[in-house]
Amino acid sequence: MFKLKKLVAAALAGVMMAVAAGCGGGSADNTPAAGNGGGKRVGVAMPTQSSQRWIQDGANMKEKLEALGYQVDLQYAEDDVQAQVSQIENMITNGANCLVVASIDSSALVNALAQAKANNIPVIAYDRLLMDTDSVSYYATFDNKGVGTLIGKYVEKQLGLAEGKGPYNVEFFAGSPDDNNAHFLNDGLFEVLQKYIDNGQLVVPSKQTDFDTICTLRWSQETAQRRMEDLISGYYTDGKKLDAVISPFDGISYGIAAALEGAGYQVGKNWPLITGQDAELMATKNIISGKQTMSVFKDTRNLADKCVTMVQAVLEGKEPEINDTTSYNNHKLVVPSYLCTPVAVDKNNYQKELVDSGYYKADQLK
After folding, report:
1. Crossing angle, helix 300-315 and helix 52-67, to 10 degrees?
2. Which among 21, 29, 46, 208 would be 20 to 30 A from 264, CA to CA?
3. Does residue 165 lie within any of the structural domains?
4. In the structure, what pLDDT confidence band is assigned to residue 39 with cuts at 50, 70 and 90?
5. Are 172 and 291 in a shared domain?
6. Confidence class of residue 38 from pLDDT cuts 50, 70 and 90?
7. pLDDT tens string 260-288
8. Same domain assignment for residues 247 and 178
9. Dist CA 7 CA 234 (whole Å)
10. Using CA atoms, how far apart are residues 113 and 206, in angstroms rounded to an integer?
């Protein structure tokens, strides 16, 4: 009975807030509108602090949610699946009114998310789709297939593939098999590049192109480095040139670069084209030095803003803005989503996209 009274009170409070808020919402630049969170609690579950982008995502959301008057419980699980399960269960127990979850392995979260649904707590999937659950309300992300398409088109342009140039020797890496984004990205990438493999313009000496072979559990730099070392020793010890390594993430790219350096490859001499994703600070420095060729910039400020407006909407009893209702089927339902737009960055445009936009300060890149 006590729990029922609490739920009724929360619902009435939400209605009162919605009436008081009128037609307010996010402003034109996606910055959440000012409001009074009334002390409601938002649990934010992030996967790890080992990657710069997740630290920024968590900090951005916490700052913006607290500015709206919400109490924020921000937790990082350091890529420990059971730790994330426990964190989410504790958020529910401690009275969270909404959960934002960037999962490590969403299949392990099904029961915890069911607890959230049983307690009428809305769940917003953040950047990684929550699979095999009907307990997710919305999804805030970048166009993950579009990230793969951007990488593929960049490689296509840089190597002159559309003009018939080649053949080039390339190797492929993919993201973590337990992250649905990795599959979307890989699909977008190969939609662009598969035809060049089929016609012989792109040659894969290892013949490793299927996702199960090229995937990298937890997007691990160390795992990627070991696999790149194996590729070099297995297929490139006879002087064969390596023209490009297609990486889906900056952390994986660091491992690839370390393996290349260890094998005697040198930037400016026999260094291959290397792609990436997230435009991390180190990756941007590597782009400037030539150690990495490009990265896909996903402005996490925009994604955090969009997620915060989703939280605010659901806690005020409103419908959040979405722009995709067809793409993200999690095997239980098609999750209403908002997709932010990624941008490819390299030496030619990093100043405009990363520095002039205020994402990095110029002295950070020295």
Report:
1. 40
2. 208
3. yes
4. confident
5. yes
6. confident
7. 999 999 999 999 999 999 999 999 999 99
8. yes
9. 61
10. 41
